Amino acid sequence: MSLPKYPEYKDSGVEWLGSVPSHWKVDRLKAAVQSCKNGIWGDEPKGDESDIPCVRVADFDRIRLVVNEDVPTLRSVTDKERIGRLLKKGDLLLEKSGGGDLKPVGQVVLYQSENAAVCSNFVARLQLKEHLVSGFWNYAFAATYAAGLNTRCTNQTSGIQNLDQERYFNETAIFPPVAEQAAIAEFLDRETAKIDALIAEQEKLIVLLAEKRQATISHAVTRGLNPAAPMKDSGVEWLGQVPAHWEVMTFQRCVYVQEGQVDPESDEYSSMVLIAPNHVESASGRLLYVETAQEQAAQSGKYLCRGGDVIYSKIRPGLRKACIAPSDCLCSADMYPLRGNENLSNTFLLWFILSEQFSALAVLESERVAMPKINRESLKAVWLPIPPINEQIAIGNFLNSEATRLDALGEEAQQAIELLKERRAALIAAVVTGQIDVRGLVDAPQEAA
């Protein structure tokens, strides 16, 4: 489908804008801004009438370009401090401090709630001049953000990015007639909503695939692959029934938990791969990347692992961080190197550790101590269902295959989301810079060009 263009264009004189409709004005961003008032953090909530929702950068929906409906943070802000800071529906909020490498400071979003609120000290309330359409300018600021205008107006101190608002508002933008601003906002609201719905469908699919993956793992390691197999009571309340020919025993009897640590700074170990929890993907069993002990400037004692060992993070077990050691390596003292005996496959052990049943038990055990972790004694007391070794291998092969298939579908869905996000950003940029004439595509009344 080809979208209409304006009948006549002119050179804007600005590289990122290029040619723009001939009847549009080109001016500084500050020509659109009535005021830009920094927010306030206030005090801890007091449970009285001074408490008010406070919008933080964490409440920004950076895809839909709005403030999330639920603003969970309450702060105590006096009536005097609220002057000029109370948010109204249609206000724009500018992220003036914070940011990061992947999300630079300078994002603008629209406040759509009827509820009274203020914004935090890392955010500014941006009010437009009279008659300008906030919906259009929300999209226009999104285009300037995508073009990187914010990054060249950013200062960084102590790891925090700060937007130089004076420099930023001196950047050049385009000013369509007000009626066209309304038409553009209406068109983009409608078209981006369609894209957002497609993104939501893909996000839902990713969740369903993750649930299917987890259910498949949990069923296979506790019920096996034969639905007709006779069952027996395992004698373990959280484990329930298992196939009648399986054994049930504790970690203590079938899993060796590595003891003793080595010095990662010594010549013998400094060049070895060192695996820490941050190297392992949550719930998948995948190792994301590797670094040597020397590259990580490791100092304190680490465990020595054999290739093929299961490496399991004892910290925050709800994250389900476990993987197979790719070769002889080191692992963090926050992890356990585990090795099954001759009757227990390490691959089967890994899948069991990733199961819902084991994870729920590990989380329960971890809550008994101040720092959420499962200690060595608690781990050794955990019961495992043990199929015959040939069945363990079959289950491992089945789960490797199913997990690969489901993960591939999840990756396809994630790629679709990224493409939809790119399409959304490209559409916004094209419309707000006048590369598409939407005047005949909406019902809003138009001024003559």
UniProtKB/TrEMBL annotation:
Task: Enumerate the spans annotated as Type I restriction modification DNA specificity domain.
Answer: 291-402
What are the entry keywords?
Answer: DNA-binding, Endonuclease, Hydrolase, Nuclease, Restriction system
So what family is this one in?
A: Belongs to the type-I restriction system S methylase family.
Q: Name one Pfam family in it.
A: Methylase_S
The record's Gene3D superfamilies line, in alphabetical order, gives:
Bipartite methylase S protein, DNA methylase specificity domains
Q: Which InterPro entries match?
A: Restrct_endonuc_typeI_TRD, Restrct_endonuc_typeI_TRD_sf, Type-I_RE_S_subunit
Keyword Hydrolase set for record: yes
Q: Molecular function terms in GO for this entry? A: DNA binding; endonuclease activity
Cite a single GO BP annotation. Answer: DNA restriction-modification system
Please give the name of this protein.
Answer: Restriction endonuclease subunit S
Annotated PANTHER family: TYPE I RESTRICTION ENZYME ECOKI SPECIFICITY SUBUNIT (PTHR43140:SF1), TYPE-1 RESTRICTION ENZYME ECOKI SPECIFICITY PROTEIN (PTHR43140)
Superkingdom, natural source? Bacteria
